[in-house]
Amino acid sequence: MLKKSLFTLLSLLLTIGILSACSNEDVATDPSTEDSDGAATITTARVLDDGTVFKDGEDVHDNVVTRWAEEELGIKFVTEWTQPNDEQFNTQLRLMMSSREKLPDVFLVSNNNIKADLIQSGLVMSIDEAIEEHATPRVKELFERFPEAFYPSTNEDGERYGVPRYSGGNGSDTLLWIRQDWLDKFDLEAPETLEELEHIMDVFVNEDPNESGRDDTIGITFAAGDEGFRGGNIADSSWVFGAFGDYVPGNWSQAADGSLVYGSIQPNVKDGLSKINEWYEKGYLSTDFAILSAGDAQESFISGRSGIMAAPPWAHGYPIGEIAQVVPDAVVKPFPHVTGPNGEAGRRGEGLIVGSFLFNREFEHMDKFFEYWDAILGYTLGESEHFPHGLFEGYDYVMQDGEPVYNIEQFEEITGEDHVDPGRYFLPTNIPTIPYEMYGLLEEFHDTGRDPVNGYEANLAGREKDYIHAAAIVNKQNDIRIVNEFSGPPTDTMSSRSEHLERLEDELFVDIIYGNKPLDAFDQFVEDWLSSGGEQVTQEVNEWYESVR
């Protein structure tokens, strides 16, 4: 009787959880797959955060994009539910999966664990046949160019289940941001090597660059409180390890024989730890950097106490741009990553995708999905028959004297309305990106000064000069990217041992940097890591790698 009562209560709570997780804007589910006027209905669900701003009178259900899709492509999109962030979105997916509730026709999944569970559940469809039958030549060419983008949504039999939502490829790769006004104050040149960077840090720490009269500055901002040294991009330190070899902590990268090895146990990481320990001993680092999150660590740079921080190009606005509110005269400029003793350089590389579109196994309109995908991909490629000037007039551009105006200030002066980004309305929650395309264009604009030739290029060319310069620097250093080749769900041994293995790593790295243990303790750590499950994890990672390739 008790078991039956508990089961009834659990079922009730599960039902309440599913209903309460839905947005207030939810609409009725299970619509007809074809409208009375012949339009194909495609249901979806999405994250709808504060970054998506609609014009007055529009919302996620009715806006310029949904009307365009229905009028031009014969597709009626029905957003069944929304959530404000990935965490809540993933929670709702899990609830629906566990209760075997019907999923939307198409939805974006960024979490590899949920992706793997959905594939195993049988609730989503394999898309190999649909790609062959319905994908356009330029979509197929993109898929063939980046086959690794399918790895996170490929099952053990090699069947593909998810259409990649590509990242910028290198969009969150880092470079160095340095106080140019401090460099100028001491007649310092831009650093090209670790040795030259160390000299700059020494000056920033010991020569009172902020003229406070106190010993209150550090050389560089690091953060190791989020994921240890295994990830992150604001206050990143991966480039220090990359200056000594081809591996960075936390990444699974190819060895000479083509197999994957774990970066944190490679010899060059030991060299990197030695260098960071040296910097710590000289006072170049904050004493509490090991426990600081990126959000906390960045305050040292924003407040004017630090002269150097690694971060992606997009950080020029936030957090780096925040320094103007504290130190109005500060000048911050982007610089390439420096080389190590043997002329090597390396940085952690962003993954190829930000998620995969999965499809309900009963979905009947893959032909219309690929038609839609091709139409908006054409905009990114500058080959669009639908968007010759920009996306939508009165949203991201306005016509004046027969010419499109993209500048936001001019747009708002002409229209008397706020400029909005209709790209956020699309199914991918933005216009499609193509790896390395955006920074490649920004590098071209920076180096040649040529004019943009379409709306997509105009949007890029109109961005801040420092952002464009930083993007050009990152793109020129693409050859130093060190990527994580493992993009599958956690292996069996990872699931049971990763917490222990990560704790071993984090504690040892911090102890070496703080001088609590000698550098040679790294060698014992490698042995302990392998014997505590790491060797089995390595075998499982390589079994996955072979299966998806």
UniProtKB/TrEMBL annotation:
Signal peptide segment: 1-21
Keyword Membrane: yes
Key words of the record: Cell membrane, Lipoprotein, Membrane, Palmitate, Signal
Superkingdom of origin: Bacteria
Record Pfam families: SBP_bac_1
Keyword Nucleus recorded: no
Protein name as catalogued: Extracellular solute-binding protein
Species of provenance: Halalkalibacter alkaliphilus
